[in-house]
Amino acid sequence: MSLDLDFFRNREFQPLDHHFAKKMVQLAFPEGDQSSDEMQMALYLASGLVCFEAAKGNVCLHLQDYAAEEMKVTGSDGEENSLLFPALESWIEHLQQSRIVGDPETRHPLILEVDTEVKRLYLNRYYQYEQGLASFIRQRLKPVNLDEQRLQKGLDRLFPSSDSTGIDYQRLAAERALSRKFSVISGGPGTGKTTAVLKILSLLIEQADDEVPRIRLAAPTGKAAARLKESIQKGKQRLLGKGQISQEIYELLQEETSTIHPCWVP
Asked: Does any domain span residue 57?
């Protein structure tokens, strides 16, 4: 291979980025292949960057983030180097001509998605992970059957109306959370996320009749799990003190927390 493929040897990258990128080029352009240097370099750069982005926790490479941009890096000798990435259209064109890059309907090592505003390159496995997660979420977005009268009664008790004419977003979040099997509630510190979750769990228990729902409380780290447990304990005590939940619901509200990892086991 006459082309000098050493960009990912620079200090900003890991050895895996370089070796993976070089291996992809070797697979796509075996010895004797007459493809242009530009095509080989396009694949080398895209392969190294998709590996680099995966190590940062990103499921794919957004080609626009690098296309036609100059990146300055530091070589092993301490000298500063720079490289100008290909323009987006030519980069995509070169990748589409590679035998190891395919569209989302194929099983190539690299998956190129160009039918979206953001042009994405995936490792095949990560593309499958993303599609599986998206399918999982879509299935749980379907409406569920509820006892509407019981739900409204519970909402009125847990979210009493105030003089404010604005929208009660906590009540709205609770109502929507119960109508689907998947919900995301976000907000900064002190915005009432834990209280809202406790009220949602209370409503879920009320909807369940004799079959108590299985509740798992999880956080990213052990420290966060301990803080969550403390917040849950204080929150349910506060709801009981206000008469918003019964003693029975209080006792059924789960206090034990864990990190997320054990929850992955069925």
From this structure: yes
